[in-house]
Write a structure and sequence with these properties.
four-stranded antiparallel β-sheet, 11 strands
Length: 119
């Protein structure tokens, strides 16, 4: 089984920054890509960013482009999300996910971590 554990969330003022981490452990045979999603109260889970594990290629939701940066540490099986210029609309529970193989889906998820942006 694969476990994903997020850390780094919390309360921050508008315009501030936070860095989320997600460490993968357990029976990891391969990682194709890892990503971040978020779910605000009363809304569906939405894509935030993802990174292709081997090449490091990234993609972002339009709402976070230019403010958020996803990166990874292959040796630690860890993905990061640097969030700058945070807005109240970024308030949500953030989840990391893992796709193990080409053509696969997000089969593994973390437990989620709260990010609150408020004065």
């Amino acid at each position: 089984q694969v476990q994903l554990v997020e850390s780094g969330g919390g309360l921050v003022q508008p315009g501030g920054s936070l860095r989320l981490s997600c460490a993968a452990s357990g029976r990891i045979f391969s990682i194709y890509y890892m990503g971040w999603f978020r779910q605000a109260p009363g809304k569906e889970r939405e894509f935030v960013a993802q990174i292709w594990w081997s090449a490091g290629t990234t993609s972002y939701a339009d709402s976070v482009k230019g403010r958020f940066t996803i990166s990874r540490d292959n040796a630690k099986n860890t993905v990061y999300l640097q969030m700058n210029s945070l807005k109240a609309s970024d308030t949500a529970v953030y989840y990391c996910g893992l796709v193990p193989n080409l053509g696969g889906r997000y089969d593994y998820w973390g437990q989620g971590i709260q990010v609150t942006v408020s004065p």
